[in-house]
Amino acid sequence: MTYAEWREYRQQATAGKNVLSELGDTSELSEFFTALTIAQVTHAANKAWCEAHGDYSQTSWADAPQWQKNSAIIGVFYKLRNPVATPSQQHDGWMQLKLAEGWTFGPIKDAVAKTHPCLVPYDELPYEQRKKDELFGAIVNALSDVGGRNVGT
Fold first, then answer.
1. Are 143 and 79 spatial neighbours (Cβ–Cβ below 8 Å)?
2. CB atoms within 10 A of CB 63
3. What is the rounded CA–CA span in Å between residue 65 and residue 19?
4. Considering the chain, what is the average pLDDT of its residues?
5. What is the Cα 37 distance to its own chain's centre?
6. What's the CA gap between 102 and 111, in Å, rounded?
């Protein structure tokens, strides 16, 4: 995700409010790089979680396709803006984004066909997937709470 794409997403995600002009460039850049850095950590943790459960299909951040990086950055941004969001709420937001991008439910994740097995309500996810969502939220919250202040808000 480029900085310009980040700005556009933030404008859409804040329901048309022009928070960008209120933040100023320094704060805005800081938030972008905070989300980017945390997204890289969550991606690495997700890869490790999958491997611990026998799934070796995840690539490193450097080798991940851009759509996957963007998804992680947007997920981090959502959690930074909604630090008390439950894993279910986080999943619902992810699912809405995927559906809006044209993804559908499918038994395997396929970026070309845009199918994903996790495009189901949160309570229908397998246990390991729900725990992975909990891990994501915990990492974002822990890394954004620097010095007792939430850096994403």
1. no
2. 8
3. 29
4. 83
5. 12
6. 11
CA dist 150 and 66 (Å) reads 27
- 19 pLDDT higher than 50: no
Cα(4)–Cα(12) distance, integer angstroms:
13
> From CA 27, how far away is CA 46, in angstroms rounded?
28
pTM: 0.78
Residue 125 in tokens: 């996810």
pLDDT tens column, 90-146 = 999 899 989 988 999 999 999 999 999 999 999 999 999 999 999 999 999 999 875
**DSSP assignment, residue 59?**
P
CA distances from 133 to 6, 54, 60, 145, 152 (A): 23, 17, 19, 19, 19
Which residue is associated with the tokens 């994501």? 136
Query: Token pair of 22, please?
Result: 């209120």
- Taking the CA atoms of 96, 102, 105 and 111 in sequence, report the sign of the dihedral they define: negative
In whole angstroms, how far apart are CA 12 and each of 115, 126, 130, 135?
25, 31, 27, 27
> Phi and psi (nearest 5°) for 52?
-65, -20
Tell me what the mean pLDDT of segment 53-60 comes to: 92
